[in-house]
Amino acid sequence: MKIKKICLRYLWLPALTIGLSLPVSRVLAAIVPENNKASGNYTLNDILQTGVNVAQWILGIVGSLTLLMFIYGGFMLLISGGNSESVTKGKKIIMGAIIGLIIVFSSYLIIEFSLSALGLSFSGVVPGSN
């Protein structure tokens, strides 16, 4: 019950913002590679490119949400007025944003390492092919 209350209280605004600012067709068009859209003949490279595009999109959204949480935590500290509960809440929000940022950077490094092991760059192209 508490998790549902937290989700309804804190996650509706980012979900609404993302839902309204990014129409689904536009997001999907940016994720699917342009190479073989007309014919539908996708290869393994196109699947890897789609994975890279999804990872870049998710990392961008998470980075934006981290920035919003930094701003929200700082705002909570500013308006606390010396109230120890508000100060603690603001510190927890900022600490959560820092931990989230560490997780995002770690996931970026894991994705980058995995793609370099496959011979790809994070842009989804084989280095030196262009």
Query: Residue share in helices?
Result: over 70%
Tally of separate helices: 5
Q: What is the C-alpha radius of gyration, as a whole number of Å?
A: 19 Å
Q: What number of domains?
A: 2
**Cα shape:** elongated
The arrangement of helices and strands along the chain is HHHHH
What share of the residues does DSSP label as strand, in percent? under 5%
Low-pLDDT runs of 5+ residues are: none
Question: What's the rounded overall pLDDT mean?
Answer: 75
Structural class: mainly alpha
Please report the distance between the alpha carbons of the first and last residues: 54 Å
Q: Largest beta sheet, briefly?
A: none
How many β-strand stretches?
0
Name the features.
130 residues; elongated
General description of the model:
The protein is mostly helical. It folds into 2 domains: 1-30, no CATH class; 43-124. It is built from 5 helices and no strands. The chain has helices at residues 2-10, 12-21, 24-31, 44-78, 84-117. The chain is elongated. The mean pLDDT is 75.
Quick recap of the structure?
By secondary structure, the protein is mainly α. The protein has 5 helices and no strands.
Note the topology.
Elements: H1 2-10, H2 12-21, H3 24-31, H4 44-78, H5 84-117
Helix pairs in contact: 4-5
